[in-house]
Amino acid sequence: MSEVMQKYFDAKPESVDLAREFATSPLTAWGLDGPAEDNRLCISELASNALAHGSEPGHGFLARLAVDDDFVRVEVHDSRSRRCGDQRPQVHHPTSSETSGRGLLIVETLADGWGVEDRQPLGKRFKAVPALREAAC
After folding, report:
1. CATH number at residue 13
2. Mean pLDDT per segment of 10 residues, for the chain of length 137 residues?
């Protein structure tokens, strides 16, 4: 089975919650209720990063879920291209006193794999593949 669902969201704070809600319906329809929360959290963290660091003024982001027989891929496409000298987004390991900067660390923890690549003509695509298996007790 290979299915894809996607939706565009405006560049405003409430879009993060809307993207998280968007992820619920396709996962339920695909019979993947077990890992749904990890997928919802990954899309939420990637959407937050897109708003904070990757959206050009007036441009939002695209949230995309794709399911194949063995995995679910969560993607968020933003509108800001890296400029000369910009570093590729990477996992940050904040101190206990820092109040932000944990988004990609959360994604890395929940996903079997994740990455970011440049899009043409502009923007970046963040993708994560959260585990389909249930956590061991």
Report:
1. 3.30.565.10
2. 90 94 87 79 91 83 88 88 66 82 86 86 85 47
- Residues present in the chain in total: 137
* Strands 61-67 and 3-9, sheet pairing: antiparallel
Alpha carbon distance 57, 72 (integer Å): 30
**Does 137 map to a domain?**
no
E strand or H helix at 17: helix 14-29
**Amino acid found at 2:** S
Which residue shows structure tokens 């890992």? 35
Residue 36 domain flag? yes
Answer whether 110's CB lies under 8 Å from 41's CB.
Answer: yes
- Helices 14-29, 36-49: inter-axial angle, 10-degree rounding: 150
Where do we find the tokens 């890395």? 108
Tally of structural domains, the chain: 1
Q: Read off the pTM.
A: 0.83
